[in-house]
Write a structure and sequence with these properties.
By secondary structure, the protein is α+β, with helices and mostly antiparallel strands. It is about 30% helix and about 25% strand. The strands form five sheets. Strands 6-9-10-22-21-20-17-11 form an eight-stranded mixed sheet, sandwiched between helices. The chain has a five-stranded mixed barrel with strand order 1-2-3-5-4. Helix 4 crosses helix 6 and helix 15 packs antiparallel against helix 16. The two termini are about 50 Å apart. The structure holds aspartic acid.
Length: about 575
């Protein structure tokens, strides 16, 4: 037997027992003639003591991260370590068996490592020995088990779908795999199992889920991974309400069983229109207020051209920020002008003890400014920030400013959780550049039944106004899940492809299989998918998903440890009928 106990297991009541442990050397300290070794495994750290004598000669040759098997007697420690669960005891060693030596690790295996991102990625297997990463993976494991337990408990079947498939249109680029057996042809890796889960509904598996890897070849924005994991779900004979209540149940079970948090009552819900209007975002962070107010009707006609010419003028009231200095306000003004925010400038109104002051005093009387202050419920001590411009762009910019002010005022505490459902998204987005509609969610999302007439209209504005029977789950301002009630009528599906600008041949070539399947008794159905990595990160109170993935890629989509992607042999290229145009 390699070990009788783990390194996290021994307690005071084990004193006197002879035990065998195995693990890695965390650190060695020498004191007088004695050596103290901290032995570590997944479960914890146990202190080993080597008294004078032969064993000390062995102990002297040990280094960090050597792998040991040790035998000894559990003893009570004279100076106890309250921080360690095993801190009351130590093992007086009788035997040390070096199972393997180790090179000196390139960084320290402590909670705060001295190694930078790059080096830790290269030696990920060493980084994974560190506590924060171990905790992150444990949390992920627990989340996955809870999801399975919950969904299995209410009759969901976990069914695997293929990874080598034909392109699924989710709006991103596909990763493709050349087929040796079918020269010149390619598989695509799934951006999600969307079409398969719908085919499973046609096949009668009315409650499906899968914790599944998805692949999207996007330009990597911060904290995106080219491969990521979804909790992918689909149900038949359901309406939106059934989906929301089923998965609200799942999310509550996760909160309860993983974080020991309970939510009373239903999660809040908000329409897309309200989300944009009050938060300037389709994923509002409702941990704090600072809602946006449209004030165009209060500010026009005073010869202030910026407001007069703007389609939209909106304000937020920042509680208690009237004390912001001119310098701070200038800095915020510069901040909103950054391309990522995209505002042209910022107007402020300070509601100070000694009266109302603003950057537009030239145009507005104190009484007029007071009307604005009342409209946004500002009181003495508050600061009003105003942006003006085109409606959607300015709403979004104001929403971004709202989040920034939330950050600056410390209103976005990761220990707080504010779940939210957002529903009734637009079905389509018009793209000026390509002069065509794109599906806002994906092309299988059903229009709201009351909008079907508009959906079939030949007027572009009518079509643009169609609402989708789609919903997102948002947690703390992050979209964690999204789904919809699907189209299950092949005629409506055909119309969708037509609206998206596919010729009927193109639609048949790409999606013939699903249009056809819908002709064989497709039940009404709908579903949702959750971004599992991000869900875990939020539950862990972290912003970055990388720690919650055992072997992630870096921001350039590279696996630094494997040094992938990489070139392949010429012969392998020939076999796949490939030629590269890149000279290396
Ligand atoms: N397949 C969709 C996605 O990945 C989710 C869904 O509609 O169920 O966003």
């Amino acid at each position: 037997m390699y070990r009788t106990h783990t390194c996290g297991e021994l307690r005071i009541n084990n004193v006197g027992e002879q035990v065998t442990l195995a693990g890695w050397v965390q650190r060695i300290r020498k004191m007088g003639g004695m050596s103290f070794i901290d032995l570590r495994d997944r479960y914890g750290i146990t202190q080993l003591v080597v008294n004078e004598g032969d064993l000390n000669t062995v102990a002297e040759k040990l280094g960090r991260e050597f792998v040991l098997q040790v035998k000894g007697i559990v003893a009570e420690r004279s100076s106890k370590n309250g921080k360690l669960p095993t801190g009351d005891v130590e093992i007086k060693l009788l035997e040390i068996n070096v199972l393997n030596s180790s090179l000196t690790p390139p960084f320290t295996i402590e909670d705060e490592s001295d190694g930078g991102e790059e080096i830790r990625s290269k030696y990920r297997y060493i980084d994974l020995r560190r506590n924060p990463l171990k905790k992150a993976l444990e949390l992920r494991h627990k989340m996955a088990q809870e999801v399975r337990k919950y969904l299995d408990g209410i009759g969901f079947m976990e069914i695997e779908t293929p990874v080598l498939i034909k392109s699924t249109p989710e709006g991103a680029r596909d990763f493709v795999v050349p087929s040796r057996m079918n020269p010149g042809e390619f598989y695509a890796l799934p951006q999600s199992p969307q079409t398969f889960k719908q085919l499973l509904m046609v096949a009668g598996y009315d409650r499906y889920f899968q914790i599944v890897r998805c692949f999207r070849d996007e330009d990597l924005r911060a904290d995106r991974q080219p491969e990521f994991t979804q909790i992918d779900c689909e149900m038949s004979f359901v309406e939106r309400e059934d989906i929301l209540s089923t998965f609200e149940g799942m999310i509550k079970a996760l909160f309860k069983n993983v974080l020991n948090r309970e939510f009373s009552g239903q999660f809040p819900r908000m329409s897309y229109t309200d989300a944009m209007k009050y938060y300037g975002s389709d994923k509002p962070d409702i941990r704090f207020g600072m809602r946006m107010t449209e004030i165009k009707h209060l500010v026009g006609g005073k010869d202030f051209a910026v407001f007069d010419s703007a389609e939209y003028v909106g304000a937020i009231c920042v509680d208690g920020a009237a004390s912001y200095t001119r310098k701070q306000l200038d800095e915020i003004t510069e901040w909103v002008k950054r391309p990522q925010v995209g505002a042209k400038g910022l107007v402020y109104i300070r509601i100070a003890e000694d009266g109302i002051k603003s950057s537009v005093d030239k145009f507005y009387t104190p009484a007029e400014l007071k009307t604005i202050a009342d409209a946004v419920n500002a009181k003495v001590g508050d600061l009003i920030l105003i942006l003006a411009g085109g409606r959607k762009k300015t709403q979004e910019a104001l929403g971004t400013l709202r989040i920034e002010m939330g950050n600056r005022l410390g209103l976005r505490d990761n220990a707080n959780y504010a779940p939210l459902w957002v529903y009734d998204f637009p079905l389509l987005e018009w793209d000026e550049e390509t002069q065509r509609f794109y599906a806002m969610h994906h092309p299988f999302t059903s229009p709201k039944p009351e909008d079907l007439d508009k959906f079939y209209s030949s007027n572009k504005d009518d079509v643009a106004a169609v609402a989708a029977n789609a919903y997102d789950f948002v947690l703390n301002g992050t979209e964690i899940g999204g789904g919809s009630i699907r189209i299950h009528d092949s005629a409506v599906q055909k119309r969708m492809f037509e609206v998206l600008g596919f010729s009927s041949e193109e639609a048949d070539y790409k999606f013939g299989f699903i249009i056809n399947a819908f002709k064989y008794g497709a039940p009404p159905h709908g579903g949702i998918a959750f971004g599992f990595d991000r869900f875990c990160a939020l539950f862990g109170g972290q912003e970055t998903i990388r720690d919650y993935i055992a072997f992630p890629k870096n921001n350039a989509g590279r696996d630094v440890m494997l040094d992938a992607p990489s070139q392949i042999d010429g012969s392998q290229m020939d076999e796949l009928f490939l030629k590269s145009t890149v000279k290396k």
